[in-house]
Predict the 3D structure of the following.
Amino acid sequence: MNKIKTSPLLPQEFVVEQICENEANIIAYPFETGFAVSLAHPLRRFLLSSSVGFAPIAIKIEGAKHEFDSVRGMLEDISDFIINLKGIRFKLNDDATQARVSYSFSGPCEIKGSDLGNDDIEIVTPEAFLATLNEDATLNFEIIVNKGIGYVPSEDIRDDIEEGFIALDAFFTPVRNVTYEIENVLVEDNPNFEKVIIKIVTDGQISPLDAFRNSLEVMYGQLAVFNSEINIQAPSTVERVEESAELKQLLTSIDELGLSARSFNCLDRSNIKFVGEITLMSQNDLKNVKNLGKKSFDEIVEKLEEFGFAVGSDLSDDLVSAFKKKLEE
């Protein structure tokens, strides 16, 4: 007979697998049956639709009046030039929301994304191709780069730009792809709990973990409308990520502290196996460990601080409860 529950199991395991700079797997478990997909699907939507990025929204090219024009000495037509420009990914510096930048090039040369970087703009795709100029060509142009989310068609931008500029379709989203997988995991004797693996690929304007953190904040913000009467406070994304990582550290074996044999044996004989057990002890409790002298006490305190904790640390109640639950398991 199944155990009768009064609340669903709360997942405690959180892992970030960094595949490369712009790709990562976000893993969490165990979820009750059906819960993993219920969370993964909306998170995927938020990642793709609400992640903040940067894109050129308008361009003015000397000698060109519209996107179907051409520039003497440039191999590409203006339409091809604009397509190539959209393939270059920009990033504004100093938390700016808009930058207006002018460029001038003389041939012969091949212009790439790396040629567009300056103090105001960082190029995250430096190898992206833009245009080819022959020996007698001169190319002068000005672009406006904006911060935004999602996709905005040029028709919605045209009325807000200066005369002489060509409005561009703006694809701000820095998240290139999001997929998720649901796997079964065993909890006690029940194999029907779930693990979610969210695979995130970005274009370099933002890291996968930051994109995930931002999507959670947007999700919490959207749900906040229901709190006006119910008054449920959702933990911040940063707290959840940090708490999960901290729990993992607390569950680290004392073997990894690099203690001397004498100090390790004193703890081991007292059945102290994990970093978290020392962290939750008071200094007096640690001093009273059988056969633990002052030198060993000082060594343990020092090693624990190197690990990022202190004896008698003030940890959150949720973190302490999660740690104690893990010990019982």
Observations:
- The chain has a mean pLDDT of 86.
- The CA atoms of residues 45 and 77 lie 36 Å apart.
- The first strand starts at residue 13 and ends at 20.
- The chain has three domains: 13-51+176-234, 52-171, 248-328.
